[in-house]
Amino acid sequence: MTIESIKERYDRNFDTLSLKEQATLKASKVVVIGLGGLGGGVVEMLARVGVGHLTLIDGDVFEGSNLNRQLLCEETLIDFSKALAAKNRVAAINSEVNVMHRQLYVDASNLYDHIKGADVIMDCLDSIDIRFLLQEAAVKADIPIISGAIAGVTGQVTTIFPGDMGYALIYGKKSRSQSGQGKLRGVETKTGNISYCALFVSALQSSECLKVLLARGSVLQNKLLIAELWNNTFDIVSLV
Description:
about 240 residues; alpha/beta; Rossmann fold; eight-stranded mixed sheet; 9 helices; globular
């Protein structure tokens, strides 16, 4: 891609981003795990802003209940792979992005192999158990995590660097399945999720991702941003 074509495609990124920063994004590698309400928004934003290498991971297919909030879901894509839909979406909006899609569920046996070499991991998961496994793999691979979660119209975002306590500061040191009490999922399984909350949180995650990649601005390390949209409350809680 020439300097001229970069300037044309990303004209509205400037002067928020410099040409040098745009080139840094083009060389950056980001893994997005979970391609539902959060992940679909993250993929859209990172592709449009110009992150050059995306690995998109989800073993699930779309179902009717996804239509209310998942950006990638369409009526014609019910029972279609979320990972492949995400790849196709990126190709449609920014063909300069190098995309690898993985239609699989992550677990302790494969997480490290699929994240190694990345610059940032985007946690768009709905399982607290898998988040703990992800953090273990990310520490081994020395990669920061940008984590988002939503429930109803409430969302949270944090950034976890290798060496941080991370999820233990939010969820406790052990999840239920790790302590023999069964699989632990997020509260969204009871509260549901609304589309604008999912996209709001995915926007915050995308912002954190760029700040980490560009070493610019203030990130949510050891902090938890909590937003509640019925009453427009926005808090940043120190976790240490």
